[in-house]
């Protein structure tokens, strides 16, 4: 056991310090990599996003480019890019992460040359969602779009670290 803390205490401290972690299931290239909008998380009410990323779990093939985005369904607000289109992720190996960096909307997502290391800049905190009005829960979705070319192989899983802002606010995985 690390230190003298129980595993549940370590997990609670992590949630307070870094936000609550939600992770999708692995998603094969024929789900995420075919130039079709896919949604990986539902956002209820308002949350602060501390980290948002796609992690390669099987080497990527194909000159696919990617973009993170958000759509508000209740109340209805059109799809908005969270990041600009990222350069091709062809040949990315397991452990490499495409990371949303926050700051100005539609800033490019980043990756580092080595897998297993992600840079989370100070600009990341981003509020998503709408204040619940008249007792109606706000609902939105975080998505991922591949563009330019289809992926021909590779697997990704998606992760988000967040903190709720409103009572009842949370993020859940869709896939």
Give a nutshell description of this structure:
By secondary structure, this protein is mostly beta strands.
Task: Summarize the structure in words.
- The strands form 3 sheets. Strands 1, 2, 4, 8, 10 and 12 form a 6-stranded antiparallel β-sheet that branches. Strands 6-5-11-3-13 form a 5-stranded antiparallel β-sheet, with no helix packed on it.
- It has 2 helices and 13 strands.
- A hairpin with a 2-residue loop joins strand 5 and strand 6 (77-81).
- It is mainly β.
- The relative contact order is 0.35.
- The longest helix is centred in the N-terminal third of the chain and has 12 residues, at 7-18.
- It has one domain.
Topology at a glance:
Elements: H1 7-18, E1 20-23, E2 27-28, H2 29-32, E3 38-44, E4 47-61, E5 65-74, E6 77-81, E7 83-84, E8 97-100, E9 107-108, E10 126-128, E11 139-147, E12 153-164, E13 170-173
Parallel strand pairs: 7-9
Antiparallel strand pairs: 1-12, 2-12, 3-11, 3-13, 4-8, 4-10, 4-12, 5-6, 5-11
